[in-house]
Amino acid sequence: MTDLLTPQLNIETAVPDWLQARRLTGRAAWDNGSMPTRKTEDWKYTSLYPLQQDFTAAPVSDASAAELGLDLPELSGSRLVFVNGHWREDLSTLVADAAIEVVRFSEANAEQSALIGEHLGTTVPGTKHLFAMLNDAALSDGVFLRVRANSKAQHPVQLVWHNSRAESTFISNQRLLVLAETHSEASLVEHFSGRNNAFTNGVSELVLGPGAKLNHSRLHLESPEALHIGGLHVRLDRDATLESFHLALGGKLKRIDIVINHEGTGAHCQLDGIYLLRGNEHIDYHTCIEHAVPHCTTDETFRGIIGDKARAVFNGRIHIHPDAQKTHAQLSNKNLLTSATAEVNTKPELEIYADDVQCAHGATIAQLDDAMLHYLRTRGIPEDEALVLLSYGFINALVETQALDALRDYLKPLLADYFGATSESASEQGSNLTRHIGA
Amino acid sequence: MLSIKDLHAEVDGKTILKGLSLEINAGEVHAIMGPNGSGKSTLGHVLSGRPGYEITGGSVEFMGKDIFEMETEERAHLGLFLAFQYPVEIPGVSNMEFLKAAVDAVRESRDEEAFDTVSFMRKAREACTAVDLDQAFLKRGVNEGFSGGEKKRNELMQMMLLEPKLCILDETDSGLDIDALQVVAKGVNTMRAEDRAFLLVTHYQRLLDYIEPDYVHVLADGRIVKSGDKSLALELEEKGYGWLEVEVA
Ligand SMILES: Nc1ncnc2c1ncn2[C@@H]1O[C@H](COP(=O)(O)OP(=O)(O)OP(=O)(O)O)[C@@H](O)[C@H]1O
Ligand SMILES: [Mg+2]
Q: Number of C-alpha atoms within 13 angstroms, CB side, residue B81?
C-alpha cells in the first residue's frame, strides 16, 4: 500500500487496550489492502489521483473563530469544535443535558471507555472500507456521544470539524461514535468546514438501540480544494428511527459512503441529501442500505445540481436480504445539470432477494427547464435571478423537511448565497439575486 | 401601443404565422378567435419572446419600440403581459416568492419604489380575494398541482399585481365554470383603462358577453382573415369558421 498517506501514524503507548487493538488491526488492513483504482467497481468514476501527494501531520492552530471564518448554525446545545482535527476547548461550549454524555475518547471515564470499546468499529465490519481502516490506524482521539436510555435530549449536539489554512497539505482524522440507547431521542449535527485543501479522513458511526430516535445532519461546507473521504456507518436495532440529512458543497475530491444496516425489525430510516458542485469539483455519494430483517422501511432522496465542469457520482444501493419480507424501500435521485460540460453518473442499484416487498427507485438527469425559465422571464424576472430561483427551487423541498428550525434558518440563506454567487458578479449583485427566496 | 406588420414566424421549421397584421391602441379591447391550430397561441409566444420561435419576416412595435430587440423580461418591464393558455408549473418556487420577484422587477424597471414585505403581503392577499383563490395558494409552488381553473386565476392575479399596459389573455376563459368566468370578466373590466389595452384569445362568445370588445378578429392559417366589431363574434358562434374560408378563397 502506498505510504504517502501513512507517515505519521501514532505510536504513543499510554492508550486503552481497545484503542491500541483497533489501531493495529486498522494498520494491518491498510497495509494489506490495495488502493482502489478506476477498475475497482465502487470507484469507477472517482479517481484517487488527488491523494497522490505528500501529506503532513495536521498542524495545531490557535486562530480565533473569526480568523478561521467559522460560521456555524446557532443551535442551543453543546458544541464541540475541532480545528485540524485538534480539540479546541476555547471554541467549544458544553451545555448540561441529563439525557446526554458527550466526551472525547481521551477523556472518557471507565464506563464510557468500556462502551466505546464495545461498539467502536462494529458498524464497519471487515476490511471493505479501506479508508475506515486508515482511520482506525490513525485513531488518536474522537468523540463519543451517548444518549441515555429512555430519555430525550433537550438540545441538539453540534460537532464541528474545521480545517484552517496551512502551508502544507495535511491529513485530519475525524471519528465519531454515537450510541443512542433504547428509546432515547436526540439530534446531532456534524459540520465540516474549512478554507483549504486538507485531506479529511472521517468516520462516523451511529448505533441506534431498540426504539431509539436520532435526527442527524452531516454538512460538508468545505472549500473547492478540499479532499474528503468519509463514511457514515449505521446500525439500526428494532423499531429504531434515523433521519439523516446530508449536504455537500465544495471538494476537489469528496467521497462519502453511507452504509445503513437495518438489523432489527420495524426500523425506519429517512435519508435525504443534497450535493451542489461547480468549477472542477468532484463529489461522490455511495449509499448502501442493507435490509437484513423484515418490516423495515427506507425512504431515500438525493438531489444534486452540477455546474461548470464539475462531476457528481451517485450510487444508491438497496440490498434486500431473503429474510427481509415486508420491506418498504424507495430511492429517488434527481440531478440538474446547469452547464453543458457538467457530468453526473447516477446508478440506483436494487438487489432484492425477498418476494413480499415494496420497492421503488428512480434516477433522473435534466437540464434547467426552458419553459419554466421563460415563464419567470415573461413576468419581468431577470434571467440570472430566474436561474437562482429555479436552482434553489430544485432542492428547496429537502431543506424544508429538515426537522431543526435553527438549522433550516442557517441553511436557507447559505444555500441562497451559494446560488447567488454563481454569476461572476459581485456579492452585492448576488444578494440581489437571492432576495426573494423565502419571501 | 402594439403594431404588428406582416409577421411571419416558424417553429421547428414549420411556418405558423404567415403575414399577420394587427394594430392595437391604448384603451382598446380586441378579441381574437379562430380554429384550433391557427396560430393564436403562437402569436402570444412570439410576442413574449419564447425560445424556439423564429421570426422570418415582418415587424412588431410595442410602445414604440422594436419588440424583437428586447429580452423577454424587458418586454414585461415595458408592460407586456401574457396569460398563458397552459401556465407552467414550477415546484420548489413558492407563488409568493415568484410574485414578489416579478412585481419588484417590474416596479424597479419603472423607477418605482419596491413594496415592503408587509404591504406586498396585503396586496397579494387582496389579489387572491379578487380572483377568488384561497390565500394558501400563495405558499404553494407556482401552479404546482393547481387545477386548470386555479391556474387561470393565478394568471389573472399576476396580471392584477403587475399592472401591465398590454394584457394578452390566451384562452383564460377555457375550462372555467361560470363563476370563474365572471371572475375573469370582472378582473379585466376593473382593469380596463385609457392607457391599457387587452387582447383576448377565446373560442367562446360567452366571454364577450361579459367583456365587450371593441374589435373582433378571426385568425386562420396564420393570418387575420377578417375583422369586425362584436357582432362578428355572434356571427362566428352561429356559423362557425367555414364560411370565412370560402369568402377568403
Ligand atoms: N414545436 C412545434 N413543432 C411543430 N409544430 C408546432 C410546434 N408548436 C406548435 N406547432 C403547431 O403550430 C400550430 C399553431 O399552434 P397554436 O398553439 O398557435 O394554435 P392555437 O391557434 O393557439 O390553437 P388552439 O385553439 O388549439 O389553442 C399548430 O398546428 C401546432 O401543432
Ligand atoms: Mg392556443
A: 26
Closest residue of chain A to B141, computed from CA coordinates: A393
Residues with CB under 6 A from ligand 1: B 11-12, 14, 16, 34, 36-42, 85
Tell the residue number behind the cell numbers 424501500, with chain if given: A329
For the record, the C-alpha cell of A355 comes out as 418476494
Task: State the Cα angle at A82 between A79 and A83, rounded to 5°.
Answer: 135
Query: pTM value?
Result: 0.87
Question: Alpha-carbon torsion B207, B209, B210, B215, what sign?
Answer: positive
The answer to whether A374 contacts B98, with C-beta atoms less than 8 Å apart, is no
Structural domain harbouring B216: 2-248
Q: If you take atom 11 of ligand 1, which residue's CA is the nearest one?
A: B37
Put simply, the answer to whether B90 touches A372 (Cβ < 8 Å) is yes
Task: Specify the amino acid at residue A73.
Answer: P
Whether residue A436 lies within 8 A of chain B, CB to CB, comes out as yes
**Tally of domains within chain B:** 1
Give the C-alpha separation, B246 to A168, whole Å. 85
- How many contacts does A have with B, using Cβ atoms within 8 A? 95
DSSP string for A348-377: EEEEE--SS-EEEEEEEEEEPPHHHHHHHH
Ligand number nearest to the C-alpha of B12: 1
CATH code for the domain in which residue B66 is found: 3.40.50.300
- Determine how β-strand B53-62 pairs with β-strand B65-66: antiparallel
Q: Ligand 1 pocket check: which of B41, B50, B82, B168 to mutate, most ligand atoms within 8 Å of Cβ?
A: B41
User: pLDDT tens track of chain A, all 439 residues?
Assistant: 455 565 455 555 567 888 888 888 998 898 888 888 888 889 999 999 898 888 888 889 999 999 898 989 999 999 999 999 999 999 999 999 999 999 999 899 999 999 999 999 999 988 888 999 999 998 888 999 999 999 999 999 999 999 998 888 899 999 999 999 999 999 999 999 998 889 999 999 999 999 999 999 999 999 999 999 999 999 999 999 999 999 999 899 999 999 999 999 999 999 999 999 999 999 999 999 999 999 999 999 999 999 999 999 999 999 999 999 999 999 999 999 999 999 999 999 999 999 999 999 999 999 989 999 999 999 999 998 999 899 999 999 999 888 899 999 999 889 988 988 754 444 555 567 777 887 7
Does A378 sit within 8 Å of B100, measured CB to CB? no
Q: Does B71 touch chain A (CB under 8 A)?
A: yes
B162 shares contact with chain A (CB less than 8 Å):
yes
Question: In 3-state terms, chain B is what percent helix, strand and coil (to 5)?
Answer: 40, 30, 30
Pairing of strands B53-62, B2-11: antiparallel
In DSSP notation, A216-238 reads EEEEEE--TT-EEEEEEEEEE-T
CB environment B135-152: b (16+ within 10 A), e (fewer) = eebbebbbbbebeebbbb
Listed by number, the residues of chain B in 6-25 with a beta carbon closer than 8 Å to a beta carbon of chain A are none
Between the alpha carbon of residue A68 and those of residues A8, A80, A260, the distances in Å are 25, 15, 33
Q: Which of B76, B82, B101 sits opposite A436 (nearest CB)?
A: B101
- Could you give the CA distance from residue A326 to residue A359 in angstroms, rounded to a whole number? 10
**B101 to chain A: closest CA residue:** A436
Residue B62: exposed, middle, or buried by beta-carbon count in 10 A (0-12, 13-18, 19+)? buried
Domain segments of chain A as ranges: 6-264, 371-439
Q: How far apart are CA B230 and CA B214, in angstroms?
A: 7
Distance, CA of A268 to CA of A265 (rounded, Å):
9
Pairwise CB contact (< 8 Å): B92 & A376? no
The label of the residue with cell 455511495 reads A286
